[in-house]
Amino acid sequence: MARLARGLSRRAWSAGFSLIELLVVITIIGVLVALLLPAVQAAREAARRVSCFNNLRQIGLGLHGYHEVCGCFPPGGIEHRSMINPKTGKPYGADGRQLAWSAFLLPYIEQQSLHDQIDFSKAFDSAENARAAAVVVSTYICPTVARSSCLTSGRGATDYGGIYGERIRFPGGPARQNNPPKGAMLYGRAISVSDIKDGTSNTLIVSEDSAWADGQWINGLNIFDQAYAINFPPDPAKGIYPENEIRSQHPNGANGAFCDGSVRFLSETMQLQTLAAICTRAGGEVVGDF
Predict the structure, then answer these.
(1) Which end of the chain has fewer surrounding CB within 10 Å, N or C?
(2) How many domains does the chain have?
(3) pLDDT, tens digit (0-9, with 9 covering 90-100), for 29-88
């Protein structure tokens, strides 16, 4: 019996792991995790990008629903406070309502009840509109954007802005202006399909403009003219300051909705001439592949 017990003890001990074998197993597991983690992160970002794409798809459909009812797309904004009030010849100032296209669009993206809470005779930041402005509209939020809150200055954020035009400076070329504005989202003026001479499939109307300080869906500051390449980083040392731009936190580009209701991923390596062309409604440019 003693010999049998000693034999079992030796066999049980020899069937276990040595310290070296255990370290090898842990190392292999660590390598596998390191290899799989980027793939998992990439899969999650792909899902977030699709969700963002679907947000813009819903916005595009909403814009066409608005156009069908009103005969035009919504104005990009009304009564921007720095712009001239034609009745007085002076800037609107604090009296400007400065309401955004994304507020007018609410009934067409299944947000009729929120739309009904807004007093459109009052400013976006008035006390009367504070409660409605604080509502977070998921359609206006890109899930890739890293943020601690979906509120900006107490108002619901948006990661999407309307295209006011472009002022992209091509390499070696002169400075260019957006006056008169060339885009499909203007202040105080509603654009219709008949105004889009370049073709609705070639004209961008809304794109990602993520994590902008004034990016609030009710605030009329969420339209912009494009000045740089997509996702171009600000560099104050070179005189390039943060401003509204086609910018996202997706790798390699940003999503954009066109006037025909389609949504496309816009590469950050797109030629500047092509980017400029899709930001205008009637520039007569020849749009290349993108």
Answers:
(1) N
(2) 1
(3) 777 766 665 655 566 777 888 999 999 999 999 999 999 999 999 999 999 999 999 999
The model's pLDDT over 7-32, given as tens digits with 9 standing for 90+, comes to 444 454 455 667 777 777 777 777 77
**SS3 category, 171:** coil
Q: Which residues pair with 163 in a beta bridge?
A: 224
Instruction: Please state the pTM of the whole predicted model.
Output: 0.84
User: Which tokens hold the place of 149?
Assistant: 């809150």
User: Does some domain include residue 227?
Assistant: yes
User: How far is CA 193 from each of CA 164, 199, 287, 290, rounded to the nearest angstrom?
Assistant: 16, 8, 18, 22
Positive or negative CA dihedral for 42, 43, 44, 48? positive
DSSP-derived letter for residue 217 is T
In a domain, 207, yes or no: yes
- CA-nearest of 170, 125, 135, 145 to 52 is 145
Query: Has residue 25 been placed in a domain?
Result: no
What's the domain range around 121? 40-278
- Residue 182 counted as domain residue: yes
Q: In sequence order, what E strands does 21-169 have?
A: 77-78, 84-85, 90-91, 99-100, 151-152, 155-156, 160-166
Residue type, 101: W
